Amino acid sequence: METRYLLLLCLFISLEYAANGKVLKGTLQTNSDWTFFTRFCFLSKTGNFSYKVSYPERYGVQSFLLYYDTANQWEAVYPATDKSCTQKKEALDKNGNQEIRLDCTRSEINGELYYVCDHFRTFISARERWWYIALSKCVTAAGETPGMYLEYEIHMTNGDIEDYLHREYSADEFYIAPIAIAFLLANCVLLVLAIICAVILRARYLFHTTYKIFMFSLATWVLYLFLWSIGYGSYGNNGLEERLRQVKTAGHVFESLYEISFLLLLVLMAKGYTITRGRLTNISTIKVAIFFTLYVFAYAILIIWEPMFFDAGKVLYIYESPPGYGLIAMRIIGWLMFLYSFIFTIKHYPNKKIFFIPFFIFYTFWFWAGPIIILLAVLVMAEWTREKTVFGVEAFVAFCGHAFFLILTRPSAANKNFPYHVRTTQIGMMVESEQNADKTDLGEFADNPYAVSSENSSNSSGGPDLSYFVVSKERSKVSETESYIPQNNER
Ligand SMILES: *[C@@H]1O[C@H](CO)[C@@H](O)[C@H](O)[C@H]1NC(C)=O
Q: Which residue spans traverse the membrane (predicted)?
C-alpha cells in the first residue's frame, strides 16, 4: 500500500494525471500485407487486450494475428522476410484462436463504409509470455485497395483497474517503478550526506576534484532514478508507451553521465590522483582522455542510434543487442585500466595499501556486478524477469558504490583509511624532497606514513612530468604548521 502512495506522489509531478489508459493510439498505413504491430508480456490469467479499430471497407478484411514467443511461432515468422504472408499465418496454432478478423460491424463514417471493431480479448496461457501482435491481409481481392490501413486505439493490461502495480505494465516491467522509487529515496539520503561531507571537507581544504566528480556522479544518478520513477510511475497510470520511451531516453543520458563520471573517478583514484599525487603524468592524461572519449562516443551512439534501430520484435531488452555488448566490453576494459593503475600505485606507494586494497576489492565488484548479472540473466532467468532484475541489481550496485565512497572519504579524524591528506591549496605544488619529509613530524602519523622521495617516484614511473604530494595528515593533527614546504621540482 505504501508503494502505491509513493507512486501517486510521482504522479503529481507527471503532466498527465487523468487516467486515459491508452497504450497505443494512431493510424497505421503500409503497403505490405503483414506487419509487426506491438508486443506485450501478459500474465498467465489476467491479460486483457482491448482494441477499437476502424478502416475503410475498400481495403478488404484485415486481421490481427497473435503470436506467442516460442521458436515455432514468433521466432519463425519475424523478421523472416523470405516468408509470405500465408506462410507466416500458417505458423499460428490452428485451434489456438489466434486470428482476430477485424470485420465486426460496418458503419458509414464521412460518407464512406468502414469496418469498425470495439472488442477485447483475454489471454490465457501456461505461463507469463510475450504476445506479438501483427496486422495482416494476405489476400487482396479484385477491386480492393492494396496495402493496409488502420485507425486504432489499443489497450493492453495485466490486472484490474485497482491493481495499480500490475495493470498497465507488461509483465516484464512489473515492479520497476517501486524499485526505482525506493532507490531514489535511498540515493537522496546519500546525496544529502554527501553535501554535508562536502561542506566539512571544504572547510578543511580537502574538497578535492575527485570528491567533486563523486558528487556529480551521485547527482546524475539521482536524476536518472527520478526520471525512471516518474516515467514508470506515470506509465502505471496512463499506459502511454511513447511518453515512457522519451522519459527513459532522457534517463539514459543521466545514467551514462553517472557511469562515465564514476568510472573516471575510480580510475583517477586508482592512479592516486589527489591521494598520492596532484597531477597525472602526460601519458596517463592522454590514456585516460582517449579511453573516456571512446566511452562517451559509445554511449552517444547507444543513446542516439539505438532507439532508431531498436526493433521490439527482435530485442527484448538492451543488453541482448550489440550496443549492450559494447557497453559490457567497455566496462571490462575500464576495469583493466583500474587494475593496471591500482597495481602501479600500490607498487610505488605500499604504505597506502590500507586504503587502496579495500578500495580495489570493493570496486572490482562494482565493475563486475553488472556484466555478471547480465550474463546470469541471459543464462538462467526467465525472459520476462531479466530487465527488472538487471535494473534492480544495477541500482543496488550504484547505491553501494556511492555509499562506500562516502564511507571511505568521511571526514572523520579517527579514520585510518581516509584517502585525502593533501589539501586542495597544495594542488599545484610540485614535489617534496627528502629533507622536507624529514622536517615533517612523521612520528605523529606513523600509522599512515606514505612519504615518497622524489627520486623514488621519478624512477618508478619513468614519466617526465611527475608530480607527487607527500604526506599531509588529518586536519586535526596538522595544527596549522606547514609541514611541507614547496620546493623547486627541478632535479
Ligand atoms: C478488458 O478491457 C476492456 C476495456 O478496457 C473492458 O471493457 C473489459 O471488461 C476487460 N475484460 C476483462 C475480462 O477484464
A: 175-201, 213-236, 256-274, 286-305, 325-343, 355-378, 390-408
pLDDT tens by residue, 70-109:
888 998 898 888 899 999 999 998 888 889 999 999 999 8
pLDDT in tens, 278-326: 888 888 899 999 999 988 988 888 788 777 777 777 776 777 777 778 8
Q: Where are the alpha helices (DSSP H) in 19-154?
A: 74-77, 85-90
| CA 233 to ligand 1 center in whole angstroms | 22
Q: Cα–Cα distance between 158 and 146 in angstroms, integer?
A: 35
Q: Is residue 332 part of a domain?
A: yes
Q: Is residue 163 part of a domain?
A: no
Q: Determine the atom of ligand 1 nearest the C-alpha atom of 155.
A: 5
Q: Using CA atoms, how far apart are residues 365 and 373, in angstroms rounded to an integer?
A: 11
The Cα–Cα gap between 173 and 193 comes to 31
- Same domain assignment for residues 228 and 348: yes
Please give the tally of structural domains in the chain.
2
Nearby residues of 401 by Cβ (< 8 Å), 6 or more positions away: 262, 363, 366
Q: Which atom of ligand 1 is nearest to the CA of 21?
A: 5
The alpha carbon of 166 and the centre of ligand 1 are apart by a number of angstroms equal to: 15
**CB 120 less than 6 A from any atom of ligand 1:** yes
Q: What is the pTM of this model?
A: 0.76
Tell me which residue range forms the domain holding 244.
Answer: 172-417
Q: Which of 171, 143, 221, 212 is nearest to 68 (CA)?
A: 171
On whether the CB atoms of residues 264 and 292 are closer than 8 A, the answer is yes
CA-nearest residue for atom 8, ligand 1, is 120
| 74 and 151 assigned to the same domain | yes
Q: Is 309 in the pocket of ligand 1 (CB under 6 A)?
A: no
Domain CATH number, residue 250: 1.20.1070
Q: State if residue 46 touches ligand 1 by the CB under 6 angstroms criterion.
A: no
CA 307 to ligand 1 center in whole angstroms: 32
- The SS3 assignment for 412 reads coil
> Among 25, 48, 122, 124, which is best to mutate for testing ligand 1, by the most ligand atoms less than 8 A from CB?
48
Rounded to a whole number of angstroms, the CA Rg of the chain reads 30
From start to end of 159-263, where are the E strands? Answer: none
Measure the CA–CA gap between 376 and 424, rounded to whole angstroms.
43
Same domain flag for 75 and 150:
yes
The verdict on residue 386 lying in a domain is: yes
